[in-house]
């Protein structure tokens, strides 16, 4: 599963340059799925840092690294915004599995 996620990250960082409008829609949809998975938004920044470190170790091209960092940071910000805006009281109650919260 982790290999699939890593592959999707590279694909999304390229596609955000090719088709930005479509990617924003796709990323927003992914963010709403993350609401259902109860993924904490605090994990996104360290994940981006780790991914950038891996790319840094793989290349000496600073422009490639900067492009990857910029696009992945943008993707992360869109995901976090979507998760925060999509986290309604009902979704939070469903994720915590508490009847009283509804």
> Low-confidence segments, ≥5 residues, pLDDT <50?
none
Structural class: mainly alpha
Helix and strand run: HHHHH
Radius of gyration: 15 Å
Head-to-tail CA distance between termini? 33 Å
Please state roughly what percent of the residues sit in beta strands, choosing from under 5%, 5-15%, 15-25%, 25-35%, 35-45% or over 45%. under 5%
What do the pLDDT scores average to? Answer: 87
Strand elements, count: 0
As a percent range, the share of helical residues equals over 70%
C-alpha geometry? elongated
User: What's the story with the biggest beta sheet?
Assistant: none
Query: Total helix count?
Result: 5
Structure description:
The protein is an all-alpha fold and about 100 residues long. About 80% of the residues lie in helices and about 0% in strands. Helix 3 (about 45-60) runs antiparallel to helix 4 (about 60-85). It is elongated, with a radius of gyration of 15 Å.
Write the topology of this structure.
Blueprint lengths: L1 H17 L1 H18 L6 H15 L3 H25 L2 H8 L6
Task: Give a quick precis of the structure.
The chain is mainly α and 102 residues long. Helices cover 81% and strands 0% of the residues.
What brief labels describe this structure?
mainly alpha, 5 helices, 102 residues
């Amino acid at each position: 599963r982790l290999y699939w996620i890593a592959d999707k990250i590279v694909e999304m960082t390229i596609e955000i340059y090719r088709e930005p409008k479509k990617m924003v829609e796709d990323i927003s949809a992914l963010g709403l799925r993350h609401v259902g998975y109860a993924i904490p938004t605090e994990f996104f920044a360290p994940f981006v840092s780790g991914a950038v470190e891996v790319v840094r170790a793989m290349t000496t091209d600073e422009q490639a690294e900067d492009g990857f960092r910029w696009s992945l940071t943008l993707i992360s910000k869109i995901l976090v915004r979507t998760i925060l805006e999509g986290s309604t009281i009902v979704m939070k109650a469903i994720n915590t599995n508490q009847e009283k919260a509804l």
